[in-house]
Amino acid sequence: MNLIENISAFQNIVYIASSILFITGIKMLGKEDTAVKGNFLSALAMFIAVAITLVDIVNPLLIIIGISIGAIVGSLIALRVKMTSIPEMVALFNGFGGLATFFIAWSEFKSIPENTFQYMLIMITIFIGGVTFSGSIIAYGKLSEKLTIKKTSIITKLFTTIFYISIIYLVYSISLTNIFVPTFDFFTILLILTLLGGIGFVLPIGGGDMPVVISLLNSFSGIAAAFAGLLLSNNVLIVAGSLVGASGLILTIIMAKAMNRSIGNILFVGYATSSSISKSEETGEVKPINVSDAYLILENASSVLVVPGYGMAVAQAQHVVRELGELLEANGTEVKYGIHPVAGRMPGHMNVLLAEANVPYDVLVEPDDVNPSMDSIDVAIVIGANDVVNPSATEEPGSPIYGMPIIEVHNARTVFVLKRSMSSGFAGVQNPLFFKENTRMLFGDAKESIGGLVSEFKE
Amino acid sequence: MEVSVMEVYILLGFVLILSIYLGLELISKVPSTLHTPLMSGANAISGIALVGALSLSPSSQLQEILAFLAVTFASINVFGGYLVTNRMLKMFKKK
After folding, report:
1. Is pLDDT above 90 for A421?
2. How many domains does one find in chain A?
3. C-beta atoms of A235 and B12 within 8 A
4. Are residues A123 and A185 in the same domain?
């Protein structure tokens, strides 16, 4: 055995150790008590795998420059980003991971694939990596609200068509082998179509469906890395990539279940065209309330459930919400927070916001835990949530959101709905909750309204 | 002993299938508090593409550029991903 083989064998042994650390790390990341340690173990695994790979690199200078730039840019973004911008940040990092695999596969293609397997793997890795990248960039644009192209716009339809064409072209590219190489530059066309296709994949999906897309893109970036691992015959890439692919898939399924919709329906149909929207115009009156009346009711409440939604994130109201919660508790009221899995724009969005505002996570409850005892809750405060508290989901079989599990705040004794105006939620469905006998509407900016309640309490 | 190309890929495919299965089993029950950190932490792990980028052996200028870009972007993913996850996890605490 020569020295090169020795190094490569040793690297593979270290990769096994690194894989075990990754597996342990991601397992611990799924439990509250061990999550911090899990993240650390996975970072350690990454460090070990990278370090042992660096042992026999060809061009150390260039690589050190690349890693340094990545380290500086990545750390700066990560440490300076506001917690409210986390969804778009995750989307952005995700896209960069996909882009890296895209480049890897591209470079491998230029080495001239040795066999048909390798050739097919290159095509697939290019496609998944490229779609992950451009899709994530679009998701970033949508989440940071820099990109506002409507689902119905002609641009969206054009890109969606390109997405389907790119899939067909991928199949065509795979079916070509080294023996039969076409005269035109089919590979460059594949690169371009893939990137444009990724745009078309995410562009028609928006608003409340964002958590599903983000988890799915997360899963894709892992699968892309795993395929790059197959391509390079590198086990640690396969193991780590697969773990990411699996965790992203699980989150995607959890999100889809929380909306009672299939993944296919979310990706390819969307709300706008799902079933015939029964516009059951609610009759009845909306009963507004002002801050001081709301305060009087809250002061006498013995249990309060706060149900936050995307509106809380937009108004950045999480800190005043925590303050109100503390004042209520000091007043002898039991305060809980009802968190719907798809509230917000990414999985766990509300949890992160409330954690940022120092709300302890053991007062956060899920719909299944709180719904059975809802009638014992004195006041439910809905802050910028709409579809996740829409009673149509349980009461109206014709409604597009019928069957979606919701937080049944309408069963509480009194419901306060904090809302800027009477517009309907993302699903475009009118919300009968606003017209219920026990509902009071507190119109205005959520942060100001809650702030008003806080100062009433302090007086 | 000569190992055929086919055998190598079957072996690698075996690792792939088992790892995905293992992942699905390990993470099947995640409390909703941890949905974002898990996603972000997994995202950092997908930066493992860095190892792939490092193991490339470029022989042309285009390949050198591609390898350099792959290393840079994967590094952003790795560093950014782990730091953001750590920052987020530190905010979660019990009463």
Report:
1. no
2. 2
3. yes
4. yes
Domain containing residue A92: 81-272
**Largest CA-CA distance found in chain A, in angstroms, rounded:** 85
Provide, as residue numbers in chain A, all residues whose Cβ is less than 8 Å from the Cβ of B37. 29, 35, 39, 348
User: Are residues A214 and B53, on separate chains, in Cβ contact within 8 Å?
Assistant: no
Q: If you search the block for the tokens 């439990």, which residue do you land on? A: A31
> Per-residue pLDDT averaged across A276-285, rounded?
53
Taken in order A166, A172, A176, A181, the sign of the CA dihedral is: negative
Find tokens 């699905």 and name the residue. B24
In a domain, A66, yes or no: no
CA dist A132 and A347 (Å) reads 18
Considering the domain architecture, whether residues A142 and A223 belong to the same structural domain is answered as yes
**B51 vs A50, A75, A81: nearest CB:** A50
In angstroms, what separates the C-alpha of B70 from chain A's closest C-alpha? 4
**In chain B, where are the structural domains located?**
5-91
Angle at B52 between CA B46 and CA B55, to 5 degrees: 160
- Residue A308 φ then ψ, to 5°: -85, 155
Residue-wise pLDDT for A428-447, tens only, equals: 667 888 888 888 888 888 88
Q: Is residue A152 part of a domain?
A: yes
Residue A437 falls inside a structural domain: yes
Query: What pLDDT is recorded for position A276?
Result: 39
- Which residue shows structure tokens 């909750």? A433
Q: Please check the confidence at residue A104 and state whether its pLDDT lies above 90.
A: yes
Between chains, do B73 and A103 touch, taking CB under 8 Å as contact? yes
What is the spatial distance between Cα A262 and Cα A366, in angstroms, rounded to a whole number?
21
Q: How far is A171 from chain B (nearest CA, A)?
A: 20
Nearest to A440 by CA among A297, A339, A337, A233: A297
- Give a yes or no: residue A309 inside a domain: yes
- pLDDT tens profile A404-420: 888 999 999 999 998 88
DSSP H or E run through A181? none
- pLDDT tens sequence across B19-48: 999 999 988 888 888 888 999 999 999 999
Average pLDDT over residues B53-79: 93
